[in-house]
Description:
This protein is mainly beta. The protein has one helix at residues 216-219, and strands spanning 10-16, 19-25, 35-46, 49-58, 62-66, 77-86, 89-93, 97-98, 102-103, 106-109, 122-128, 143-151, 164-166, 170-173, 184-192, 204-210, 226-227.
Amino acid sequence: xxxxxxxxxxxxxxxxxxxxxxxxxxxxxxxxxxxxxxxxxxxxxxxxxxxxxxxxxxxxxxxxxxxxxxxxxxxxxxxxxxxxxxxxxxxxxxxxxxxxxxxxxxxxxxxxxxxxxxxxxxxxxxxxxxxxxxxxxxxxxxxxxxxxxxxxxxxxxxxxxxxxxxxxxxxxxxxxxxxxxxxxxxxxxxxxxxxxxxxxxxxxxxxxxxxxxxxxxxxxxxxxxxxx
Length: 228
């Protein structure tokens, strides 16, 4: 067996000529004679099930795939799987190594909130795990997200006054260099509305929608809701 990679492959987001790409990086376990790599890109199509998006064979220690809005969309969790083999003897190959799943899209931190009617403000961070790209747009480059709240309350009840209040109805994500899992971030505060009614635990949700983005990638995307 051929020795595989020094460590599992890693996916990072990158702008290539103004378009959002994902890069899969890996390194050989030892400086052996020339090795080729078979890189398989896949996306999670349903829980536990992956769908193949792209495959290539390359001598380089990296591979790119574009978030084109068709094969790969925002909201997808993407994997790359790398197998090393010797040129001329493809039967001599390493075991395939999987990257961690990379979630491309909007993330909320924390993912859900549990708050009390005590007037306290709770910070909700909205971040994009992919770079904000504005091809052919020189003026202000940003993605504006519209935030809305909905009370799910208890199904038997008629919806009453709102249970939560946000500090803003819109947030702007401005391009910045990617670091950690964030390529752009904004914050909003969430407060429980004090209504002096003993109404037990109630559930609300915060929904997000990109406002009239020019970029096709964002146009067809609705981020996941946040449960409060």
